[in-house]
Amino acid sequence: MNKLKILRIGLFQMAAGGLSVVFLGIINRVMRVELGIDLAIVSLIVGGGHYMGALVAIPFGHFSDTHRIAGYRRTIYIFLGTIVTTTILVFAPHMAVWLSSDTTVLRIIITFMFFLLEGVSTFLAGTAYLALITDITTSKDRGSAAGLVWTLLMVGIIITGITAASYMENYSFNRIIILCSSASIITLLLALIALWNQESRSNEKISQPESLRNAFKVLTSFKTTRKFALFLLIGLFSFFMQDVILEPFGGEVFNLSTSQTTRFNSFLGVGLVSAMLLGGTYLIPRIGKTRVTNIGGYIIAVSFAGLAISGFTKNGQALNIIIFFLGLGAGLFTVGSIALMFDLTADRHVGLYIGAWTLVQALAKGPAAIMSGVFHKMFTSLGLAPGEAYGSVFTLEAIGLLVAIYLLRKVNVQTFQEEIKQKWADESI
Length: 429
Hints:
Growth Hormone, Chain: A; 0% strand; globular; mainly alpha
């Protein structure tokens, strides 16, 4: 598969990155700051609704494996999910204002269901999209595909973050309506360009589709998939705990200004994008996906150890450098594990497996944001100073990454393929 085709399909992921900024960044900020809705309610509605949508990933992934629309297993589902998501985005500001005018339990439930639909449609489109990438690439191509596609995701996040922040500097309801409408139109156009003529159309009927129950038994029957799921869960949970506490760490422990801690994202992002490009296009073809993932995990663990030492010693001179290396490790870890994820799928159940890995990622990211705060509160209640409490959380994250690296040693793609071949051979007897 040529890189131009991979680059084109990556435009969808770039659009998805932009949408995540608007939904999980701007909309929730407006609901809390400009509209005055309680932060716990905002987190439940926007974040909770989004991540709960991941529960459809496994059943829908299996459904797309076994049910074509107009001869396509993935493309139409991606478009349908994108249309629903962008439609919800257009109406999201109206829903937010409606809730803020009278924050009753009934209105909270209705708004939650509204944003839950966003989560469902997002993960519906995302699962089919990742399954499509798996379908149209070979194992040899998947490292570079993961690198390019996830780099474009970050590009989408960065461009949208800068553009939207500038446009929304002076908040007004009309401005956010224009922003959401513009983002929706751009997303649909990029999706059309990205997906056009990527998937081959087939009129071949799928005879006697396997039930979800039986397909799920196949998914959980292989030791390799169980080990990889545990690796993903622990690795991503350990990394994403820093999301919520990194900037407060800089402000509370080192008295850094808001602008100084905001720059953490720039150092993290530069490291992340650089490593994704380097890992996907250069390192994976030369040293392999597992080794790149391991290297990334070790760099993350060492970076968390550096942050922990900074907290314990109250020495913040190397913070920006440490955060850059944190991003560098995260980029290698991400691109390597995603390339492995593409390989750890069975030909008969690509959507099912991608759905499983998508769900595991959501299960890791959602609780991580909550538990970092819980751990910090626990350590402060034990009498630790702020720097020591943050340092203890970072230490837990470093340990978690080392555990994940240990688990990855037990994951072997070749063993997985042999397990699948044996399974199909046993069924054919």
